[in-house]
Design brief:
The protein contains nine helices and ten strands. By secondary structure, the protein is α/β, with parallel strands linked by helices. The strands form three sheets. A five-stranded parallel beta sheet has the order 5-4-6-7-8, with helices on both faces. A three-stranded antiparallel beta sheet has the order 1-2-3, with no helix packed on it. A two-stranded antiparallel ribbon has the order 9-10. β4 (about 115-120), α5 and β5 (about 150) form a beta-alpha-beta unit. Bound molecules: pyridoxal-5'-phosphate. Pyridoxal-5'-phosphate binds near residues 125, 208 and 210.
């Protein structure tokens, strides 16, 4: 049986990984700036991670949601400790797309409405409704196009006011940093404006933190720098660390370190995309900026 040809593939197969490095079958080492598409937030095969996972697997690997699972309650407690997000309920599923799919479902049940406001260049996953609210025609089927969505520009207050005032929007979903879209960010002024209007028009605010969350921007969730309280927060990637199906996206960028080595993929790839589109670059002090400086330091030491 052939593998379904979905993604453009990088010509490298990681055989194993150790903290910030991956190694291919020949033993060639790569500084992993890509992180399995932003999944590997704590480094490859971190000893604590390996220990906890191995211990658990030696006890029991899986059971269904129909049983009491103390570990889920412990995860909820830890997330509250880390994020300081009080008064949320945790629902666990399998991927970022599924998290968004469920978030939309809850918003639609809650408001009894179906239209969604999303933002241009957004990416929210590859399941049906998640693709529906993703702004990329190339990957959308007719089925996904049945989702009732309006795409707006970030910071377009006039457009937002016009749409939200129709009182038929169940949810506004936004990424604080558009990872796949190319690092665009909405302004705090706009996010606060949006959040206030959503309250007024009984619309749910969904913060998609699948890529930007779990400490990736310094705050536990990237939206926290805007000082708002979303109704629903979706998360994945860094949350699952290596224990998930990570995915790859297109692009062929390589990054030359100062000592002349070629490092494949990584944040540079996203920067490149942003630059190509002539839009935002990672700002001074941004995650990308810091990560690149850190990786340059590591490469130098190495
Ligand atoms: C912002 C955002 N939301 C959702 C998703 C989908 O997550 P998953 O690949 O876990 O389904 C992604 C994946 O890149 C993402 O970047």
């Amino acid at each position: 049986m052939n593998l379904f040809n979905v993604y453009p593939l990088y010509e490298i197969t990681p055989a194993y990984g150790k903290m910030c490095y991956i190694y291919d079958k020949k033993g060639d080492r790569y500084l992993d700036l890509y992180g399995g598409h932003a999944v590997i937030s704590i480094g490859h095969s971190h000893p604590n991670y390996v220990k906890y996972l191995s211990d658990q697997l030696s006890k029991i690997g899986f059971y269904s949601n129909y049983i009491v699972n103390d570990l889920q309650a412990e995860v909820a407690k830890q997330i509250i400790n880390q994020s300081k997000c009080e008064n949320y309920n945790l629902f666990m599923c399998n991927s970022g797309a599924e998290a968004n799919e469920n978030a939309l479902q809850v918003a639609s049940f809650h408001t009894n409405r179906s239209r969604v406001i999303a933002f241009k260049n957004s990416f929210h996953g590859r399941s049906n409704a998640a693709l529906g609210i993703t702004d990329n025609k190339k990957i959308k089927s007719k089925l996904n196009k049945l989702i009732d969505v309006t795409f707006l520009d970030f910071n377009d207050k006039k457009g937002f006011l016009n749409e939200i005032s129709k009182n038929d929007v169940c949810a506004v979903i936004f990424e604080s940093v558009q990872g796949v879209g190319g690092l665009d960010q909405p302004s705090t002024d706009f996010i606060k404006f949006m959040s206030e209007l959503c309250k007024k028009h009984s619309t749910c605010v969904i913060a998609d933190e699948v890529q930007s969350g779990f400490g990736r921007t310094g705050d536990f969730f990237a939206y926290q720098k805007h000082d708002i309280k979303p109704d629903i927060i979706s998360m994945a990637k860094g949350m699952g660390k290596e224990f998930r199906d990570s995915k790859k996206d297109g692009g062929k960028a390589t990054y030359k370190t100062k000592d002349g080595r070629t490092v494949k993929k990584g944040l540079y790839y996203y920067m490149n995309r942003a630059k190509k589109r002539g839009t935002s670059k990672p700002g001074k002090g941004s995650v990308t900026d810091k990560a690149l400086k850190q990786s340059a330091k590591t490469a130098k030491k190495d």
